[in-house]
Design a protein that fits this description.
By secondary structure, the chain is α/β, with parallel strands linked by helices. The chain has helices at residues 56-59, 78-84, 93-98, 130-138; strands at 74-77, 90-91, 109-112, 122-125, 127-128, 142-145. The longest helix is centred in the last third of the chain and has 9 residues, at 130-138. The mean pLDDT is 90.
Length: 152
């Protein structure tokens, strides 16, 4: 097998249709556009144009507000930390990803207070809920809030 012997599989490629090239081509004269009418003209409106009627995308009500500048945190509950880490462990974004809890830390990790924590853990995260911070400290651990840039 040489480089010059490579070719696509038989039937996998087609010749481009050459429209408007005379009667012998089978696509001559009107080139598949039919006779006259708006769709036969150059510059014909397509897609969302509805003949002067208000287009569907404009008729449907828009609701709510989409804040494109919002910071999206990956959230982890205390119960998940309890199951996945041993007492005395340092829990940060890298450790959470390595444990398979999250695939992606987005703009950082936020720890929420759902579940019970009985182990003393050192938790480093971008944000903590008040309940999570209190539960970590009640279990003998420390909650360290770090800036978003330090999160992996």
């Amino acid at each position: 097998m040489r480089l010059q012997d490579l070719a696509p599989a038989a039937g996998s490629t087609k010749e481009k249709k050459r429209k408007g090239r005379g009667p012998g081509s089978g696509q001559g004269k009107t080139a598949g556009y039919g006779h006259k009418g708006q769709k036969a003209r150059s510059g014909a409106k397509g897609g969302a144009f509805e003949g002067g009627q208000r287009p569907l995308a404009q008729r449907i009500p828009k609701r709510g507000f989409n804040n494109i500048f919002r910071t999206e945190y990956a959230i982890v509950n205390l119960g998940v930390l309890e199951e996945n880490f041993e007492a005395g462990a340092v829990v940060d974004a890298d450790a959470i990803v390595a444990a398979g809890i999250l695939k992606n830390t987005q703009a950082g990790v936020k720890i929420l207070g759902d579940g019970a924590l009985t182990k003393a853990l050192t938790v480093k995260a971008s944000k903590f809920s008040a309940a999570a911070k209190a539960a970590i400290e009640a279990a003998g651990g420390t909650a360290v809030e770090i800036a978003g840039a330090e999160v992996a």
